[in-house]
Design a protein that fits this description.
This protein is an alpha/beta fold and about 625 residues long. The chain has 17 helices and 19 strands. Bound molecules: adenosine-5'-diphosphate (ADP). Adenosine-5'-diphosphate binds next to α16 and α17. InterPro entries: HATPase_C_sf, HATPase_dom, His_kinase_dom, HisK_dim/P_dom, HisK_dim/P_sf, Sig_transdc_His_kin-like_C.
Length: about 625
């Protein structure tokens, strides 16, 4: 510290120290105890500090400077401190009113108990302190801190004053914008309308003159803040916002600048730049700015020197310029500003660690889970393919088995078919012979012959129809699923066994449902199901002694299902066998294979249906098939 002092200042201090030493020596000679007490009282002396704020205690940027100065002062002061704060609210008004009552208030407060030092923060507080110091604190040292050099009233400075000035360099701030975003065509400037802010609007205009045509400057100082927000929300591309200050807007509304800045940041579609450290960290991109730390450390150092007895006139500092540029990484990302555009020596803050850095072990866990899951999925896919193959294969087998079963059924149908074919073929023969006879007649009745030929044709069609149906049932086909009408399908199956039933003297009746029954299925397979059930029913009634021999086939609609019921008047199924009849190779017949019902069940289930059997109370078995309806 002494290295910075002028020689004039050193001499009196040495003299004072010599006197003090002498006094202490004398005291020590008398007694050691009073010397220690003197030391303690020197250290314990309370210092009263008066802190004068400009717009209010919570107004950025000054509030941040004030907070930092206060904290550092409390930390560095070797004396206990009594810091009293007052805010100069009149600076908020566009037309400042009378300050006299506030001055009188301070006067009555400090009369007879003068502060040891007065610290003003910001230009309005500095002006006020200078204007009223003669009345309020004529002999108290005054530190005018955080004042832009242009606003220092040098004419009224006294020997008892210290100025900690800052220097705004708007050209540097705007150069920073154009350096980062060279395509910028317009810069909109946000500065409020209080007297201080009006002063700055003029200063910025004056300083930016050399920019000339390079960029268009838009001034928002005569707009209410609401309107500024509206405009900032839809700025044309290649526009940047310059945030000067917003303490009082053109409508006279007072704003805490940082809250206003945050709402601007929330709505705007353009990057915001500011030259004040207190606005950095969330809303602005960054650049060269005033550093709170530097200004407050100089202010505190000056205050301690003065409180320690140094003459204020000897404490002198040059105005503080902008600190080396600093940038907010998040804003650089948001506006796509490459780090290569930043000036050398820049500092980037708020860099967000990437997701791998931030959630290292969670990411490792997720990756591991993904890998395990991928393995499981591929395993399952492989398994599914295998199952599908197996399914296709088993269907193939089923089709083959069903085909074999159809042959055996057809074997039983031979009589029926022979009978069905016999009838039309017999008629054809008789009709042909009759026609031959008639043609021998010299004047044959041509109408009659035409009639006979028509009969022959009809019988031939009947015979072909029998063969066509037989072919259809015997055709070796894989499953051919389509939309079918169940009443028709069952009717066709019954057509194949009518003659067999007749031959065995069994009454076969069919009662179709009154509504159409649309299901998805393979008609040939389903006909085989019906055939198997009818043949089994007829087999059960083969005992010649039975009086009533009847097979009733009905189709009904039961909710969202279609049902085919095949009931007979046979002996029914022994209750012990009810659970086994669908098992493969279960048979009670001497030459039975035990495959019929197993195939029936497999076919029904392949159609997403169910089959059940029960003995009717009045005798005989009833098989019920349920198939899901399409509508
Ligand atoms: P199979 O006809 O070769 O014996 P099925 O699987 O068609 O093979 O029938 C299995 C058994 O179920 C038959 O042997 C018979 O005992 C019994 N069964 C099937 N349908 C009836 C029925 N309508 N009445 C009485 N028993 C039946």
């Amino acid at each position: 510290m002494s290295g910075r002092m002028s020689t004039d200042a050193v001499r009196p201090r040495h003299a004072a120290a010599a006197l003090l030493c002498l006094a202490l020596l004398v005291a020590a000679c008398m007694s050691l105890a009073p010397a220690a007490a003197a030391e303690r009282s020197l250290r314990g002396e309370l210092k009263r500090v008066l802190l004068l704020h400009s717009f209010g205690r919570e107004f950025r940027p000054w509030s941040e400077f004030a907070r930092s100065i206060k904290a550092e002062l409390e930390q560095q002061s070797p004396w206990p401190l009594d810091i009293q704060e007052h805010a100069l609210l009149t600076a908020r008004f566009n037309n400042p009113g009378p300050e006299a009552p506030f001055v009188e208030y301070l006067h009555s407060l400090y009369q007879g108990a003068m502060p040891d030092i007065v610290l003003s923060i910001g230009a309005p507080a500095a002006r006020f302190a200078q204007r009223y110091r003669a009345r309020l604190f004529p002999d108290t040292p005054l530190i005018l801190s955080t004042v832009e050099q242009r606003l220092v009233n040098r004419a009224d400075l006294t020997d008892n004053d210290v100025v900690i000035a800052v220097r705004n360099d708007f050209m540097a701030a705007f150069d920073n914008i154009l350096q980062l975003l060279p395509d910028t065509r317009t810069i909109a400037i946000v500065i409020g309308a209080s007297p201080l802010e009006k002063f700055w609007v003029e200063e910025v205009k004056r300083e930016l003159k050399p920019l000339g045509e390079r960029v268009e400057l838009v001034w928002y100082s005569d707009l209410p803040f609401e309107e500024i927000l509206k405009r900032a929300a839809k700025l044309p591309p290649h526009t940047a916002l310059f945030w000067g200050l917003m303490s009082v807007d053109a409508a006279g509304i007072v704003h805490e600048s940082d809250i206003a800045l945050r709402s601007l940041h929330a709505v705007t579609n353009a990057p915001i730049f500011s030259y004040q450290d207190p606005f950095f960290g969330g809303s602005t991109v960054g650049g060269p700015m005033h550093s709170v730390a530097e200004t407050s450390s100089r202010t505190v150092s000056a205050a301690i020197r003065i409180l320690g007895g140094e003459k204020p006139g000897n404490v002198k500092y040059e105005p503080i310029g902008f600190a080396p540029p600093r940038y907010d990484w998040r804003e650089l990302q948001r506006w796509g500003i490459s780090e290569s555009r930043l000036p050398p020596g820049s500092e980037i803050l708020f860099r967000e660690p990437n997701i791998w850095e931030r959630y290292r072990w969670q990411m490792l866990l997720i990756t591991a889970v993904f890998l395990v899951q991928a393995g499981l999925i591929s395993g399952l896919l492989h398994e599914r393919r295998r199952r599908r193959f197996a399914e296709v294969e088993s269907r193939q087998r089923l089709a083959e088995l069903a085909h074999a079963n159809r042959y055996s059924a057809v074997g039983e149908l031979t009589t029926s078919i022979a009978h069905e074919l016999n009838q039309p073929l017999g008629s054809i023969l008789t009709n042909a012979e009759t026609a031959e006879l008639m043609l021998k007649n010299p004047s044959p009745d041509m109408d009659e012959i035409r009639q006979i030929l028509a009969d022959i044709r009809r019988d031939d069609q009947r015979a072909s129809e029998v063969i066509r149906r037989l072919r259809r049932v015997l055709r070796k086909t894989p499953f051919e699923v389509g939309e079918i009408e169940l009443n028709d399908t069952v009717r066709e199956a019954i057509g194949l066994v009518t003659a067999v039933a007749d031959g065995r003297r069994i009454v076969l009746t069919y009662t179709p449902a009154l509504t159409l029954l649309h299901v998805r299925g393979d008609p040939v397979q389903l006909q085989q199901v019906v055939l198997n059930l009818i043949i089994n029913a007829m087999d059960a009634m083969s005992d010649a002694g039975m009086k009533k021999r009847e097979v009733r086939v009905t189709t009904v609609r039961a909710g969202s299902y279609a049902e085919i019921r095949v009931a007979d008047t046979g002996p029914g199924i022994a209750s012990a066998d009810l659970g086994s009849v669908f098992n493969p190779f279960f048979t009670t017949k001497p030459e039975g294979m035990g495959m019929g019902l197993a195939i029936v069940k497999t076919i029904v289930e392949a159609h997403h249906g169910t089959i059940r059997v029960e003995n009717q109370p009045w005798g005989g078995a009833q098989f019920t098939i349920r198939l899901p309806l399409l509508d």
